[in-house]
TrEMBL record:
Recorded family membership: In the N-terminal section; belongs to the HFCD (homo-oligomeric flavin containing Cys decarboxylase) superfamily.
EC numbers: 4.1.1.36, 6.3.2.5
Domain DNA/pantothenate metabolism flavoprotein C-terminal: from-to ranges: 10-218
Residues of the full protein shown: 177 to 401 of 403
Name this polypeptide is given: Coenzyme A biosynthesis bifunctional protein CoaBC
Keywords in alphabetical order: Decarboxylase, Flavoprotein, FMN, Ligase, Lyase, Magnesium, Metal-binding, Multifunctional enzyme
GO MF annotations in UniProt: FMN binding; metal ion binding; phosphopantothenate--cysteine ligase activity; phosphopantothenoylcysteine decarboxylase activity
Length: 225
């Protein structure tokens, strides 16, 4: 679409992305995680690269090939993902938080494999840092984009996150609909920003990614030099 000459709307821009799930260890052989496949984040990395951007993709554990021309950094936990993001944030023009970051992690990681004993056990969890909100709070921050996976009241919750985290744009995903969101090949995003909204329709993740990136390119601040 964009690669062979022609106008590349993200030419010269640097884009940092998170994708996939995180894994929060319980002991050396077990973890808490979620069903994120990483497909949406990897589609964004691929399309952004085609649109001329220099792309760094920080990925949780997924089974997807690295898109051509993309710099990929693999992590497991939310804390590792945050550290990798902060290490790579300087000089970025755009940050897109597409990862399904685990909201909580076990308070302690057992040193050895946990043995079963009682009929029931309780695991105590603590909140993970919010990577997206941390990026948005930086004094010199990139254009910051989040995702919102919701099953109901989609616009209200998405606009809530946009305001609460201080984002420039949010892409909302109604995960109650079959065939979109987690693990699916298609998606139906609605974009929200302070003064507007845009419904991207229903299409494959490459097309959704392209439309989201085109909207980001239009909304980026003009170059200062
Ligand atoms: N996110 C993040 N770090 C976290 C949790 C979420 O960077 N610890 C990012 C996700 O990558 C996504 C956005 O925040 O871009 C929203 O994630 P979501 O799970 O929809 O929202 P939460 O703020 O975690 O709220 P909740 O799960 O309660 O709806
Ligand atoms: Ca969450």
């Amino acid at each position: 679409h964009y690669r062979d000459g022609g106008h590349q709307p993200l030419k010269g821009k640097r884009l940092l992305l998170t994708a996939g799930p995180t894994r929060e260890a319980l002991d050396p052989v077990r973890y808490l995680s979620n069903h994120s496949s990483g497909k949406m984040g990897f589609a964004l990395a691929d399309q952004a690269q085609r649109m001329g951007a220099e792309v760094t993709l920080i990925s949780g554990p997924v089974s997807l090939p690295t898109p051509q021309g993309v710099n990929r950094i693999d992590v497991e936990s939310a804390e590792q993902m945050l550290a990798a993001v902060m290490d790579n944030l300087a000089g970025q023009d755009v940050f897109v938080g597409c990862a399904a970051v685990a909201d909580y992690r076990p308070v302690a990681v057992a040193e050895g494999k946990i043995k079963k004993s009682e009929a029931a056990m309780t695991v105590e969890l603590v909140r993970n840092p919010d990577i997206l909100a941390t990026v948005a709070q930086q004094a010199k921050r990139p254009f910051t984009v989040g995702f919102a996976a919701e099953t109901h009241n989609v616009e209200q919750y998405a606009r809530d996150k946009l305001a609460r985290k201080g984002l420039d744009l949010i892409a909302a995903n109604d995960v109650s609909q079959p065939g979109q969101g987690f693990n699916a090949n298609a998606n139906a995003l609605t974009l929200y920003w302070n003064e507007g909204a845009k419904d991207l329709g229903h299409s494959d993740k490459a097309d959704q990614a392209r439309q989201l990136l085109e909207t980001i390119a239009q909304r980026l601040p003009a170059d200062e030099n």
